[in-house]
Amino acid sequence: MLELQSCCKSIRLPSGDTLQLLRDLSLKILPGESLAILGRSGTGKSTLLGLLGLLDTLDCGSYRVDGQETVGLCDRALANLRGRTFGFIYQRFCLMSRLSAFQNVEAPLLHRPGRRADRHKAVYEALDKVGLIERAKHKPDQLSGGEQQRVAIARALVHNPHVILADEPTGSLDRSTGTMILRLLFNLVKEAGVTLVVVTHEPLIAAQIERVLELSNGALKDGNL
Ligand SMILES: Nc1ncnc2c1ncn2[C@@H]1O[C@H](COP(=O)(O)OP(=O)(O)OP(=O)(O)O)[C@@H](O)[C@H]1O
Ligand SMILES: [Mg+2]
Q: Which pTM was predicted?
């Protein structure tokens, strides 16, 4: 369970002004739940996702991950908890261009203990789930946009995270590829029983997710209204 309580976050702009992105925001996300976050550009959706994924820290408030308070944890403890708990999918795939699909998916496993053979098995299983075994040796520029995003999904799932955080996962794809990627993501998430938080501008995505919240003026409100 992810539990943000009375949290706030502001950002210092290059002009020297401060932009208050989140104000006294509270949010509880239950295990296995799927949640879509909508909102206008620049409202702080990616910032919120970064906070949920422990890539960024709160200015005030509390954030508990599976009951553990994260405020005040040292970088090492945060990195451990982040690696154990979260898988990230980014809008622009963020694959490493010099690495093959296989190596990109393997990357999150490299700093973990474990045998090479087991690691390779996990990578092939993840590539198989997204239908890309036969593209394992391709580098990102030798893959279509939809294939690159499927590699990114495999990378997000390969270490069996409890929570997938997806920041506009279909933002760089055409409508039909985007729909296919989403169907795949929703099915994988359902099969694995993991929690999904997806930031999106796409009403189509939101329509497929039970719980939809809209971020506006630093607060979350029901996005179905
Ligand atoms: N490191 C930073 N330094 C200064 N300003 C930043 C920084 N990161 C984000 N911002 C500003 O904070 C605001 C919120 O950014 P954020 O990326 O969270 O918005 P968003 O809701 O994800 O927008 P979009 O829908 O366009 O992706 C924006 O106005 C952005 O310019
Ligand atoms: Mg964003």
A: 0.91
